[in-house]
């Protein structure tokens, strides 16, 4: 992720790798799998007639492993990958916490974003690149860092409940996993006056609706701005970002000691 001058005649252009090839592939697999799961899942639930039930269910089950591998294997690998070669375990965790966990500085950015909405102050930089260390301090909108927490929870619940909806008697390595899930749901179901299976269906559907809402927030609102189209190009194609384009960007120079 080392910055480089894109053109010798344009010394002020600092082009860096924002997303690796694996990160871009992970994002694409996650997106396509999620869309297939949403469309086929809602067809199964609402009875849309654009495809038959068996086809929808087959596509739904094909998309599941891609979705889980992207989110439970590739995403963690990317998150804990270090921007420098030979990075220590502590360095990897520090990089993860600094880059992806919502913290005090993100809260300040979010407050500034809200104030900007009401015409008070400038929109803060949420892309912060450290020239000396040669990596991003953070590259996520603070709202996305909050969405990550909710999304991770939704993925867990949609996977757990999906096991039961796939097979009420699903067994893994001789362990009656599906029946265990039903038993746990049975403890909470009476509080909502539903059966254990009814509660499992409710949670699965609620998680699906959350992904619809997140899709609207992620694409339709937070990124429906021509100034952030450069990020779409980076995540879907080039992987690179020109930090000289100043919208939402802060570059920390070697002698810059200010808090970012």
Structural description of this entry:
By secondary structure, the chain is mostly helical. The chain has a domain at 144-221. The protein has eight helices and six strands, in the order E-E-H-H-H-H-E-E-H-H-H-H-E-E. The protein has helices at 21-46, 53-80, 89-100, 104-117, 142-166, 177-188, 196-221, 229-238, and strands at residues 4-5, 14-17, 127-130, 135-138, 240-242, 249-252. The strands form two sheets. The protein has a three-stranded antiparallel beta sheet. The longest helix is centred in the first third of the chain and has 28 residues, at 53-80. GO terms for molecular function: Methanosarcina-phenazine hydrogenase activity. The chain crosses the membrane at residues 28-46, 58-80, 146-171, 177-200, 207-224. InterPro entries: Di-haem_cyt_TM.
Order of the strands making up the biggest sheet: 1-2-5
| Helix and strand pattern | EEHHHHEEHHHHEE
Low-confidence stretches: 4-10
Structural class given helices, strands, pairing?
A: mainly alpha
**Anisotropy-based shape:** elongated
Number of strands: 6
């Amino acid at each position: 992720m080392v910055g480089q001058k894109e053109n010798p005649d344009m010394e002020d252009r600092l082009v860096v790798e924002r997303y690796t090839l694996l990160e871009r592939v992970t994002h694409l697999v996650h997106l396509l799998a999620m869309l297939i799961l949403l469309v086929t899942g809602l067809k199964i639930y609402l009875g849309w007639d654009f495809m038959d039930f068996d086809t929808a269910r087959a596509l739904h089950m094909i998309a599941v492993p891609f979705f889980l591998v992207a989110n439970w294997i590739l995403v963690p690998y990317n998150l804990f990958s270090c921007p420098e070669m030979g990075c220590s375990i502590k360095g990897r965790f520090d990089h993860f916490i600094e880059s992806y966990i919502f913290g005090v500085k993100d809260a300040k950015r979010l407050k500034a974003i809200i104030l900007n909405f009401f015409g008070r102050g400038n929109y803060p930089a949420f892309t912060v690149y450290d020239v000396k260390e040669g990596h991003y301090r953070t590259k996520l909108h603070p709202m996305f860092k909050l969405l990550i927490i909710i999304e991770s929870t939704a993925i867990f619940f949609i996977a757990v409940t999906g096991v039961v909806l796939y097979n009420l008697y699903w067994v893994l390595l001789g362990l009656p996993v599906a029946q265990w899930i039903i038993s746990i749901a049975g403890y909470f179901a009476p509080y909502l006056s539903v059966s254990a299976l009814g509660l499992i269906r409710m949670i699965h559907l609620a998680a699906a609706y959350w992904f619809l809402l997140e899709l609207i927030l992620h694409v339709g609102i937070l990124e429906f701005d021509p100034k952030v189209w450069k990020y779409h190009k980076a995540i879907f194609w080039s992987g690179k970002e020109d930090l000289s384009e100043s919208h939402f960007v802060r570059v920390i120079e070697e002698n810059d000691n200010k808090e970012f």
